[in-house]
């Protein structure tokens, strides 16, 4: 890539800043942790280009949407926000709008955005490092730029410091990109491309730089971290080995990872989790459905029994491990009996937390062609019954913490998380703590989604 557009934009924005103020940017992020990490880097990139960050869309001269399309609701929200931008742009012709991220990787998206000419630049998930070039091109020509070409190699957002992050104490580190699993309901493999692992040396270098910069907690990120190195024939234990190496980095107090696919969870990983004290005793293990028949339809490649056996092994090897999950209700063909199997698994595992979704049809996925869809009313009812089952289980788990003192990493004033990721609200008489500190909190109250306590600090 030529450095010229980047330089030109920075110089242009510097000149504006001399006259008065730097143009202000606002990034709105949607979707998963990986998108959040991308958004951090995009913010850093825009700062390098001479823009100043602002906290609200209304204040901004430059708005970037980093989109998600995993469910229709995410897309609806984005188009809702875009329609407000259209109104804002009518009042402020100079407003510059960029849309990037997963939504832009869908077929026919160019046609969609040509109907939204107030969007200046649309770029993809694999070519966003070329954003300065696209912005400059759109500014120079005054025409909309749509470029979603996929480059070869790792879709890394290069050119910003690896220590770029939103929070002082924690950061995500991508260990792989894309997904090859093709779960029948899911659009991610189509919009994020093939599964590719980053070289361990790059990951470790980034993690070391973050630790040296004051980061206490690192989350290793990928759509299926358990498959790390699989395409490079690195073998089943590659992720466990990586975890051990990250664990050796001085300065890190907590190491997390997500997401784990149940089909690839190795014995070596369970052993590493049990053995390494700074690896958090929590695992996000999406179930999707408790019915073996639905799981086969979904192409998840495990059965109800496999899932239960895995959670039993985890609970046996790591006492008190917090298992969280994702569950979809109303998948095409899901019967009452299938749904009850999901409830049964939820009860048996005793989930510490769960993201619950109503199935959303994504065009281009195998499930989208099914005609045996579950009526909306039935799906809504099942959703209510699922959460009514899950919440008391989550609360009962949190009740076990009442009377105990838990080590809490402070995330903001009066709020933090335990190693097993339980949200802790706390009061403290002296408030002698800083963000990122590990402090003892004595728990006195438990709810489904958090506990409350008092810190002696
Ligand atoms: N890679 C992760 C999931 C990423 S998407 C994994 O496999 O575990 C996050 C969650 O969104 C999924 O676990 C699933 O529960 C949900 N999801 C994905 N596609 C969906 C769809 N079409 N409808 C409803 N929920 C969906
Ligand atoms: Fe989607 Fe399945 Fe890949 Fe997760 S593992 S991102 S649900 S295709
Ligand atoms: Fe959404 Fe893309 Fe993540 S579709 S869930 S932002 S990988």
Report on the structure:
The protein has 457 residues and is of the alpha/beta class. It has 13 helices and 19 strands. Strand 18 (438-446) and strand 19 (451-455) form a beta hairpin. The model has no long low-confidence stretch (mean pLDDT 94). It binds S-adenosyl-L-homocysteine, iron/sulfur cluster (SF4) and FE3-S4 cluster (F3S). Iron/sulfur cluster is lined by residues 179, 181-183, 186, 188-189, 223-224, 261.
Low-confidence stretches: none
Shape: globular
Q: What's the average pLDDT? A: 94
List of distinct ligands in this structure: S-adenosyl-L-homocysteine, iron/sulfur cluster, FE3-S4 cluster
Give the biggest beta sheet: 6 strands, parallel
Rounded to the nearest angstrom, the distance between the terminal CA atoms is 52 Å
Rg result: 23 Å
Cross-sheet strand order for the largest sheet? 2-1-3-4-5-6
Helix content: 25-40%
Question: Quick recap of the structure?
Answer:
The chain has 457 residues and is α/β, with parallel strands linked by helices. Helix content is 36%, strand content 21%. α4 (109-114) links the parallel β4 and β5.
């Amino acid at each position: 890539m030529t450095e010229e557009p980047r330089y030109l934009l920075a110089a242009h924005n510097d000149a504006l800043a001399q006259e008065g103020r730097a143009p202000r940017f606002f990034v709105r992020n949607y979707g998963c942790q990986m998108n959040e990490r991308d958004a951090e880097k995009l913010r850093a990139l825009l700062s390098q280009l001479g823009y100043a960050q602002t906290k609200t869309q209304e204040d901004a001269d430059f708005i970037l949407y980093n989109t998600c399309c995993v469910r229709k609701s995410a897309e609806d929200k984005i188009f809702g926000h875009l329609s407000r931008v259209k109104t804002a742009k009518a009042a402020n012709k100079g407003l510059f709008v960029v849309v990037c991220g997963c939504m832009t990787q869908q077929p026919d998206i160019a046609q969609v955005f040509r109907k939204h000419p107030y969007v200046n630049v649309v770029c993809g998930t694999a070519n966003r490092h070329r954003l300065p070039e696209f912005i400059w091109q759109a500014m120079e020509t005054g025409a909309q730029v749509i470029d979603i070409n996929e480059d070869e190699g790792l879709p890394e957002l290069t050119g910003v410091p690896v220590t770029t992050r939103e929070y002082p104490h924690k950061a995500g580190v991508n260990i792989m990109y894309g997904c090859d699993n093709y779960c029948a309901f899911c659009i991610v493999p189509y919009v994020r491309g093939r599964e590719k692992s980053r070289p361990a040396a790059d990951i470790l270098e980034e993690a070391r730089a973050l630790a040296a910069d004051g980061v206490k907690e690192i989350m290793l990120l990928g759509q299926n971290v358990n498959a790390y190195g699989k395409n490079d024939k690195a073998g089943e234990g590659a992720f466990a080995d990586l975890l051990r190496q990250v664990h050796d980095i001085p300065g890190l107090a907590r190491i997390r990872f997500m997401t784990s696919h149940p089909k690839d969870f190795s014995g070596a990983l369970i052993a590493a989790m049990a053995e390494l004290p700074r690896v958090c005793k929590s695992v996000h293990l999406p179930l999707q459905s408790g019915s073996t028949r639905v799981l086969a339809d979904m192409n998840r490649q495990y059965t109800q029994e496999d899932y239960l056996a895995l959670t039993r092994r985890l609970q046996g090897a790591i006492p008190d491990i917090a298992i969280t999950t994702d569950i979809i209700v109303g998948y095409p063909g899901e019967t009452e009996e299938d749904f009850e199997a999901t409830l049964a698994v939820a009860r048996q595992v005793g989930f510490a937390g769960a993201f619950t979704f109503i199935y959303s049809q994504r065009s281009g996925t195998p499930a989208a062609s099914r005609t045996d869809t579950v009526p909306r009313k039935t799906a809504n009812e099942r959703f209510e019954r699922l959460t009514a089952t899950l919440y008391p289980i989550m609360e009962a788990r949190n009740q076990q913490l009442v009377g105990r003192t838990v080590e809490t990493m402070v995330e903001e004033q009066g709020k933090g998380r335990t190693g097993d990721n339980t949200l802790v609200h706390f009061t403290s008489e002296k408030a002698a703590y800083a963000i990122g500190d590990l402090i003892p909190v004595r728990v006195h109250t438990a709810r489904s989604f958090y506990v409350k306590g008092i810190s002696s600090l």
